[in-house]
Amino acid sequence: MDSGTFFVQFVDPGYAYPAVSFVVLGAFAQLASFLYLSALIFSGTRLADAFRRRKRMSATATSAAGVLFLGFAVKLTLASA
Known about the structure:
Blueprint: H1 3-7, H2 18-53, H3 55-80
Helix pairs in contact: 2-3
């Protein structure tokens, strides 16, 4: 989605300086995105280190993900029948 079309609904057209509203909304969106992605990167790095150190935990997590996907496949198959 284009951020310009998303932000339009939050900008008051009667405001004297609508560009300021766009800049503030855009800055807020960039800040939220930066914080969210930074948290994902740092937590993902820690999780990857934990998986490298504990091979059994890594194998268990991989097996659990496989079982989860098999469960999704069974559910999808039964829903389509």
